[in-house]
Amino acid sequence: MKKNRLKNETEACGECGKTARKGKPPFRLLDFVIIAAVVLISLAPLLFLPKDEGSTVVITWHGEEIYRGSITKDQTVVTPDGLNTIVIENGSVRMENAECRDRICVRSGAASPSHPIVCLPNRVVVTVIGTEEVDSGTW
Amino acid sequence: MVKPGSFSPTKKLALAALIAAAAIIVHTVEALLPPLIPGIPVRLGLANVFTLLALMLLGAPYAAAVAIVRCVVAVLITGAVSQLPYSLAGALLSFAAMFMLEPLRCRGRLSAVGESVFGAFAFNLGQLGVGILIAGRAMFFYFPVMSLLSVPTGIFTGLIAHYIFKVLSRNFNAEQNR
Question: Is the Cβ pair B155, A35 closer than 8 Å?
């Protein structure tokens, strides 16, 4: 019986000269090791990565980034020329005050990843970079 | 008795072409199917069966050729050129991973299933790498899901490759011993 199997394995084809064993499930010990390793590797980021802080607020003024921080941190930011006041509060960000004619930015309300606040006359842009709002439809 | 793995180069080339053709068809048909889970780009990866099969039957150079030819031609057929970097990176990384494990399988420490699971994992890793390069770091949040799903899909494709290989090698042996 043992001889038979040996013969079976040596008269094989294939690059390394092994046929599959007859009539037995293909699984070997190392298979399970690999499967367990893959499962562990895929779960590892969930355990060890720092918890997602949510969205990030980025404020640019005259093309330069003047503020970057989590949306959960309450903060009032005044642009260097003192014309615009941005308030981050209760997980949302809005343009509190702006010294310009139309004040469109003030009226546009809270910013979101798909809806940044722009003040054209004073060249201020408030964007929210979301981590969870990936456009899954694209993929 | 014929020595193991001693197909003539012509036969190897013909077999590789045959395997590549089958891989292209499977890849194309699979591309037509909607994703298994909406929003997460996970497929069964049936086309990877053929890379593994070529690796087991014909050796590494032929397997790499099958992987590359399959990706390029399948993209030309489906017309989704933007997917080429994803599938190419995935297929090449998965080939590299399975190539690394091939000696272990030869010594009988491992079956095609483990090889295929690792290959599927590497495939997702390659796709994710390209995704991160193209679409930004947010893609990384797909990693746990995609990586976990590579286990069942890998087992499935590995079993397919295993049984195809079994039947094929039995036939080739019969042919050679005739």
Answer: yes
CA distance B25 to A60: 50
Q: Which ipTM score applies to this complex?
A: 0.77
3-state helix, strand, coil in chain A (%, to 5): 25, 30, 45
- The answer to whether B118 faces chain A, any CB pair under 8 Å, is yes
Domains and CATH numbers, chain A: 2-48 (no CATH), 56-136 (2.60.320.10)
Residue-wise pLDDT tens digits, A110-122: 887 778 888 888 8
> Is B9-177 in CATH node 3.40.50.300?
no
Pick from A30, A134, A41: which is nearest to B148 by CA?
A41
The answer to whether B1 contacts A11, with C-beta atoms less than 8 Å apart, is yes
Q: Find out whether B23 and B70 touch, Cβ atoms under 8 Å.
A: yes
- Judge whether A47 is closer than 8 Å to chain B, CB to CB: no
Count of CB pairs separated by less than 8 Å, A with B: 129
A50-82: pLDDT as tens digits:
555 567 888 888 888 888 888 777 888 888 888
